[in-house]
Amino acid sequence: MSDRIFFPLILVFVASLVWLASRPFADDLPTGSVSGANTDYSVIIVEGDQLNKFNTSDHAQMKLITQREMYRLEIIALTDKFSAAVETGPHFRLAADLETVFSERPLRITLRARQAAQKGAPGFEVNYSAGLK
User: Fold this and answer.
1) Contact 30/91 with Cβ under 8 angstroms?
2) Are the C-beta atoms of 90 and 75 separated by less than 8 Å?
3) Which of helix, strand or coil describes residue 84?
4) How confident is the model at residue 101 (pLDDT cuts 50, 70, 90)?
């Protein structure tokens, strides 16, 4: 292959790699475990687009709604499909850094939830699981 073809192709290839690495997926919502990200561990707040880290089972649907830079997590679930196992309901997992920092320490957890305007659930239950069986 001649240099007149090779170098322009390499330039296009490198530019494509830089573009792919920098932009197209920058607006993806975060997923995975909730982490303190090596910040101040005295207060961990899951809000905004971090609410997308909630997981649902096959029995529920989750939708992250954005209105004027305010995020709201909407979860639609069939209540008769859940069991006592935490994994069957909407939940999020803590990353290893939080588990290490908070192990054997008392926790205060504040949760804000409200009933949907239409067809809201008659009740609400919150559980904490350390993943032990």
Assistant:
1) no
2) yes
3) coil
4) confident
Cβ-count burial 120-130 (b if 16+ within 10 Å, e if not):
eeeeeeeeeee
Write the CA distances from 36 to 50, 80, 95, integer angstroms. 12, 34, 8
pLDDT at 22: 75
Tell me the sheet residues that pair with 63. Answer: 74
Q: Are the C-beta atoms of 90 and 62 separated by less than 8 Å? A: yes
pLDDT for 26: 62
E strands in the chain: 60-67, 70-77
The reported pLDDT for the residue numbered 64 is 86
The residue type found at 4 is R
Characterize 74-98 residue by residue with b for buried, 16 or more Cβ atoms within 10 angstroms of its Cβ, and e for exposed.
Answer: eeebeeeebeeeeebbbbebbeebb
In 3D, which of 79, 51, 46, 45 has the Cα closest to residue 65? 51
